[in-house]
Design brief:
With about 400 residues, the protein is mainly alpha-helical. It is about 50% helix and about 5% strand. The longest helix has about 40 residues, at about 320-360. The chain is elongated, with a radius of gyration of 35 Å.
Length: about 400
């Protein structure tokens, strides 16, 4: 009997040891569950209404273990069942702990679409076609015609306000454009009611056309009211606008970076070197700033402007001063071209020198100093290259 109890005691000890080992093993496995890695190919996770945590785990974990362990883990952490439906970006989510922290806090991914001021509608449409989680409905001409009919415009250019618009996943492209169109209508209505006396435009659409032109003429906020004043002054005295962006818009794909004499004479309704007044539609997406400037031009008598070579423009009230400013701009342009050619040649020679030195060693170390000394000499007088086919009078807007 004594031996029996001794054997039983030993078996009990072994059973306890085994149980303790199994317990430690279970704890180890459960501790490792929240550290299991998420599939690297999973970038966006959709959690549908009524989705179960167990299914999310199965779909997300890189190397899953037996389902029993997940069920135990979920039972020990009941708060993990309070996940919120929606779309989640998995950037920065590396394991189950990260994932459920995001799902239970409801940190859904932020979706937005930006319409950049000065872009054309076809570019906006192309960008929208590549936006994430958008329902694309405008991929046929019939759909586009129906949308134009809905907005009651034959041409959609300029009918959307430049801004960034938040949207929910699977929002239709027309709805996102609708946000931008509604924003434009509201802002334009408000600005039109507060417009300055003496602005030329007979209705809001004409003001929108001018805002789209100003958007293409300068990127400097402080110049918007000045350029607005130039065009408003020209319109009020019956002078042609003569603005290059309308020429570029009118010739479309024929524009190759340079405006030629033939382009300036091209007979199309957008060529403001040919037509009087405004073109028939906007030529780009306007911003709040250019709409405001259009309806609140600066109180100045300027009729001309030309680039000053420093990113801005020189404004003039008369043709004589304008032509002087044009000549100064052309002089700076020539100087920059000569400097650019000189720097390019210098770079090519220095590159060649480096190659020689690498191939023949120290015998050619003096070549670089020779090149430097050569390019410290006075540059020759620039050749008469204006870079423009137009007369001076054709410049400036």
């Amino acid at each position: 009997m004594k031996k029996f109890f001794k054997a039983l005691f030993i078996l009990l000890i072994l059973a306890l040891a085994a149980a303790a080992g199994l317990y430690r093993y279970c704890l180890t496995v459960l501790d490792e569950i929240p550290l299991q890695t998420i599939r690297p190919d999973l970038k966006i996770l959709e959690v549908k209404s009524g989705a179960k945590p167990m299914q999310i785990i199965k779909d997300s974990v890189n190397t899953p273990v037996n389902e029993l362990w997940y069920r135990i883990w979920l039972h020990q952490n009941p708060e993990l069942g309070r996940i919120k439906r929606g779309y989640y970006s998995l950037d920065g989510v590396y394991n189950l702990r990260d994932l459920f922290a995001k799902l239970t806090e409801g940190k859904q991914m932020s979706l937005s679409f930006t319409i950049v001021a000065g872009t054309r509608f076809d570019k906006v449409l192309n960008n929208l076609s590549r936006a994430s989680l958008v329902e694309h409905t405008l991929d046929s001409q019939d759909a586009m015609d129906a949308y134009k009919k809905e907005l009651k415009y034959d041409n959609l250019e300029g009918l959307f306000l430049a801004d960034t618009y938040a949207y929910d996943p699977n929002t239709a492209d027309t709805q996102i454009l609708g946000y931008a169109h509604d924003s434009l209508v509201k802002y334009l209505d408000d600005e039109w009611e507060r417009r300055d006396a003496g602005v030329f435009y007979k209705d809001k659409y004409e003001a929108l056309i001018m805002a789209s032109i100003i958007e293409k003429e300068t990127s400097l906020l402080e110049e918007y009211p000045l350029i607005s004043a130039v065009f408003n002054n020209r319109l009020n005295i019956g002078m042609k606008l003569q603005t290059d962006p309308t020429v570029i818009y009118g010739i479309r794909d024929r524009y190759n970076g340079n405006i030629t004499k033939a382009d300036l004479k091209d007979d199309n309704p957008y060529n403001t070197y040919v037509i009087k007044g405004l073109p028939p539609t906007p030529i780009s997406i306007p911003s709040k700033e250019t709409i405001h400037a259009t309806l609140h031009p600066a109180n100045v008598d300027y009729l001309f402007f030309v680039a000053n070579g420093s990113g801005g423009h020189t404004f003039s009230t008369n043709l004589k001063d304008h032509n002087r400013a044009v000549k100064e701009f052309l002089r700076l342009l020539k100087e920059n071209k000569v400097k650019s050619r000189k720097d390019k040649v210098k770079e090519q020679i220095l590159n060649t020198t480096s190659e020689i030195e690498n191939s023949i060693g120290n015998e050619s170390r003096g070549l670089e100093n020779l090149v430097e000394s050569l390019f410290n000499l006075k540059a020759p007088e620039p050749h008469n290259e204006s870079g423009s086919d137009r007369k001076d009078e054709a410049s400036g807007g």
